[in-house]
Design a protein that fits this description.
With about 220 residues, the chain is of the alpha+beta class. It has one domain. It has a seven-stranded antiparallel sheet, sandwiched between helices. Strands 9-1-10 form a three-stranded mixed sheet. Helix 1 packs across helix 3. The longest helix has 23 residues. It is globular.
Length: about 220
């Protein structure tokens, strides 16, 4: 491809990205996390809104561990130009699973003070301890199994390894966080396309379950 062709392609990519983003932003809606109605051994997990993408924080025996999912080129290789943005937005691509372990207290204050990344919102979600342990074990095992591919990103403070499920705009970091929350026993209301979360209070979640099971 000649230099002039590359310029035309980059211009087209920028225009397409801007147009697509404007269209999709108009459909932006809040996604509601509905915690489990009944929890015998409660433990809090945290959904972090970083602006455009999300990550999840789980308690860990050594503090707390943060996990994020995303496009490999964008997050692991730090290829963030317009061409890469178009590729990541409109085609299935190689995906990465990012991990960081922080020695600190797994509380809202501990997470905000212990992480070296930008956080717009922290959403605390009470779930069952056994489910937290199961999800953490599964993600830890997946990260270990693919550690040969590890790439550390200083911007996101995450060690990325290859994830077996391709990334796509319709299967992005927010969708993956929603998937993890479902594994923790939560219900998700909304499409989770954007990092726009709210947590339904436990009392309302319990009341809703009772209404569904009424006479």
């Amino acid at each position: 491809m000649t230099r002039s062709h590359r310029r035309v392609f980059r211009l087209f990519a920028s225009v397409a990205l801007a147009g697509g983003a404007a269209l999709l932003l108009s459909a932006c809606t809040t996604t509601t996390i509905v915690p489990p109605a009944s929890v015998d051994r409660p433990q809090s997990v945290f959904v972090l809104d970083h602006g455009r993408h999300s990550s999840i924080v789980l308690p860990h025996p050594e503090g707390f561990v943060r996990y994020a999912y995303g496009d490999w080129g964008w997050y692991a290789e730090v290829e963030t130009g317009p061409t890469e943005a178009i590729r990541a937005a409109f085609w299935p691509t190689r995906a990465g699973l990012g991990r960081s372990l922080t020695a600190g207290t797994a509380t809202r204050e501990g997470v905000r003070g212990g992480l070296r990344v930008g956080i717009q919102e922290i959403h605390e979600v009470p779930v069952e301890t056994d489910r937290v342990d199961a999800l953490r074990s599964s993600l830890e095992a997946l990260h270990r199994e693919n550690y040969a591919s590890v790439k550390y990103n200083t911007v996101y403070d995450l060690a990325f390894v290859e994830h077996p499920e391709p990334y796509a705009f319709w299967h992005n970091s927010n969708h993956k966080v929603a998937e993890w929350l479902r594994q923790l026993g939560c219900a998700i209301e909304g499409n989770a396309l954007w990092a726009s979360w709210q947590v339904q209070p436990r009392a309302l979640a319990t009341e809703g379950v009772k209404d569904l099971g009424g006479d």
